[in-house]
Amino acid sequence: MTTNVNQPELLVDEIEVDDRPPMERLPYWARATNPIVRRHLGLYWRTLPPEIEPLLYITGTWIALLLLGIVAPFVTDLATTVIVVSVLVIPLAIIFYVRSLFSIAANSAAAMSDEIRNNTMHLLMSTPMTVDQIFLGKAAAAIWRKMDDLILIIQAAALFGPPLIIMHYAGIFTLRDGGPITYILVIVFTVVSLLRIIIEPVMFGIIGVTIGAFVPFRSTAMTSAVAMVGFYFLLMVMLQQLNLEYAVASMEAVQQATEATIDAANFRLVLAVLQTIFVDLVLPLLLPYAIIRGFIRLVGRHVQSL
Hints:
Low-confidence stretches: 5-15
Distance between the termini: 77 Å
Largest sheet: none
Helix content: over 70%
Strand content: under 5%
Oligomer: single chain
């Protein structure tokens, strides 16, 4: 029997390794080297792109612990002992996150307002970049200015977020009593919370660009963009709090139900759980995506009509 000595080399050649620099792995509109982005960055063009590997390691560890907790609940109990740290770290991270979003919205609005006021938007539209890439590039420039803060925030959310998520939904999805589905839901809640930190800055950047396109006065555009950030979070917090109270009330109704009312109480509980999943999992991702696509189309029509 003969051995093909070239086989290992062939297997190595078949493996596709992405050896590009981290900046070139980003979409072109999101790169700090993009001319439309760089013209707004100033000294911030030296900011390094985010490292994804640490975030993946942290999130993967939590997912492994939660999956292991399905068969060995004490593992999750030990892991969630960091809840004390989470209670201290996450509120501070939220404050810095909202502050970063204020800055992103304001800087995007200011950049776009300057383009409209200086009548340079049509000059940008004559470049090879599409209108969508121009608007996204202006949002990316504002995000790059806060990139260091956003990296720390998303790492803090990945490291200390899951215990706080478990505590927040303890009245609805108890790990011990709910079975495997509750562990899966905590994992999904964790992933969605991290995705929000990625998509929401883009959304508020586009909101700022939209306001700047319609309001040529720099200070007014910036103030309006910041107000939109506050309104969005106020609306989401109120909606989630009302939904949580409804879910807790539905659970109490099931516990106090009689044989005659148990079916109606169970139906109300199922409806409350589905509503919670939609409000806390689907809406925070679907709404920003819809706003980004819709506002880009709106600004494109408005700018082309100038």
